[in-house]
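User: structure tokens for this one?
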Amino acid sequence: MSRYFTEDHEWIDVDGDIGTVGISDYAQSQLGDIVFVEVPDAGRSLGKGDEAAVVESVKAASDVYSPVSGNVLEGNPALTDEPALVNSDPEGEGWFFKITLSDASELDALMDETAYAAFVAKL
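Assistant:
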């Protein structure tokens, strides 16, 4: 499994042609306490960079963008009842949605963990 990051602080774990998407630990730390999450419905078609989900914290509401194109397999149902999972485990149980990649070459434009760490260090 490979993990990639966007400059908008989404991450995607890729296993075959299935990607699991969430926001980075840096992003959740900047948002503060998460109070609401809206995830996309299964079957929704997304293009790379499309608004896919919404996250609201005590500080702000933010859109979560799809790092790749594809069709949503499922949204994380646990976030409806427990949006704070994004704070407690942003890069694990706090995932937002799973997507079937329609063009794996889009991953080439994303950062690996080392490049993302360097990107965040400059912020």
